[in-house]
Design a protein that fits this description.
The chain is an all-beta fold and 64 residues long. The protein has no helices and four strands. Strands 1-4 form a two-stranded antiparallel sheet.
């Protein structure tokens, strides 16, 4: 687990936000030909509000 320096101030931002699309009628994700879930981006969309109340001490580091 990442330990942050208590003598510094940190903020959180959205770095990458892939979006999946759900076929509501089929109750399944839109998929690539190989069966993996197709991911989309939404360029020029302001995601900054998502992290407004994020406390970095509750974040969990994700694997590569």
């Amino acid at each position: 687990m990442m330990k942050f320096d208590p003598d510094k101030t940190y903020g959180a931002v959205v770095w990458d936000m892939p979006i999946a699309v759900v076929d509501v009628e089929a109750d399944d994700y839109v998929r690539n030909e190989d069966g993996s879930i197709k991911l989309f981006n939404m360029p020029n969309y302001d995601y900054s509000y998502i992290c407004d109340d994020v406390d970095v001490n509750y974040l969990e580091e994700r694997g590569e």
